[in-house]
Predict the structure of 2-hydroxyhepta-2,4-diene-1,7-dioate isomerase.
Amino acid sequence: MDTWMRFMSNDGGVVFGRVEGGYLHEYESLEQPVPTGAVLSTRALTPLAPCAPGKVVALWNNFHALAAKLDKPVPSHPLFLLKPASSVIGAGEPIRRPAGYAGKIVYEGELGIVIGRRCRNASIEEAAQAIFGYTLVNDVTAADLLNENPHFPQWCRAKGFDTFCCIGPAIVSGFAWQKAHLTTTLDGVERQNYPLADMVFSPAEQVSLISQDLTLEPGDMIACGTSVGVGSIKDGATVTVAIEGIGRLSNTLSAAGAVTAGAAAAAEASAV
Amino acid sequence: MDTWMRFMSNDGGVVFGRVEGGYLHEYESLEQPVPTGAVLSTRALTPLAPCAPGKVVALWNNFHALAAKLDKPVPSHPLFLLKPASSVIGAGEPIRRPAGYAGKIVYEGELGIVIGRRCRNASIEEAAQAIFGYTLVNDVTAADLLNENPHFPQWCRAKGFDTFCCIGPAIVSGFAWQKAHLTTTLDGVERQNYPLADMVFSPAEQVSLISQDLTLEPGDMIACGTSVGVGSIKDGATVTVAIEGIGRLSNTLSAAGAVTAGAAAAAEASAV
């Protein structure tokens, strides 16, 4: 298992690499994981989302326990929507309530698959090889928008707002998801605790089947879907998604317009 | 009005610029439209999709005539889904039937808005300024997948396959869409002919409203939605979308596995 992170350095540049004992061993990129030879103390660096996905494929109804609770049949092919790159933030960055939206905002703790190499029509074996590693996802939804229009379910809009795809803090390669549990806490109170082994489509199956539809690129992400225990976040509350061996992803929901100047500046810098 | 195109040069590089009288006046990029001073004959260049959008926001139910035909109320906010960057192809490139899908494939001729500058919470005036120009879109759908699963409408999957977002051949800046008509022909037979003035949300309104939800980046596209006359494409048939002043966008549907070696090589090269 290796732990990979992305940081902003003091000069505003972005560095990526393997983190060990408080040091970043810099690599060219996720796509070309070749060491540059540079070793930097992580104390001098500002953490960013661990990758910059071109697209995020987000699965719906991919856990047996949730399917049973919703009384829906398990799907025969991954059911997914897309979250845009513009929705991605890293650990510690604020989730921003959309201006003009006073409704319910919902967390979903999920395992994230990070793609390491271009992937099209991949077999299960090729798909397994194309997985760079795993991260944590909080797949945020403006729940009241989803069915606001009775003629068109607004999955992409409700889940696509800026800051609505929290990922991080790290990508862990070689991670054995099969025996892991994911927990989500809301202001420290456990709300989700489910075994990843309950997935309908395994990570390699997801990558293989989705790659029959659309080409996956290095850095792209698949959010594996959530299980039972989803709930709403009040303004000011903090959601923490955790998997032992990957880490803890915490993000706080800010009321509209309530983002601090520092956080806004960091978000601006990381988006450049 | 200026006409902007993107090409592959003989050395495999990508060039972007203003086209006039058979020559490309090269510019740094769509984001930084500064002339490089280079002038190239377009005869030595291979056309590509005119931009490389990070995301494509595709509107549903944005024409009064179509809303009336579908007997749906006109929406109060743009209703959209996202098509991934991996679905984009240029004029002349083949639409590929997904392997394992024998169902109906549908064309939709649309106006495309190309974003020129980063756009977040834009007013109508700022939104109008952020539009780089307009292009043509064939928003392709694997229609039988849309409601294949009764519990989850698969908009992103049905419209997100590789090659399902045809755009081009050019971006025209300063284009007056208000008086223009869009036509779509199928193997030369006219199937759509509708006035763009029938749009529910104008281009500047679309950009402004969508930028309240998600940050639009230079090169991103909005497909403005289609009107009446949508229909299915048989394998081997050619769809041509045209607007006088922008040009003609033609793409042929290839049966699965039937893409010629040359087209596949061109697609591979343009994807690098």
Notes: Confidence is low (pLDDT under 50) at residues 260-272 of chain A. DSSP finds six helices and 20 strands in chain A. Chain A touches chain B through 39 residues (CB under 8 Å). Residues 50 and 70 of chain A are 33 Å apart (CA to CA).
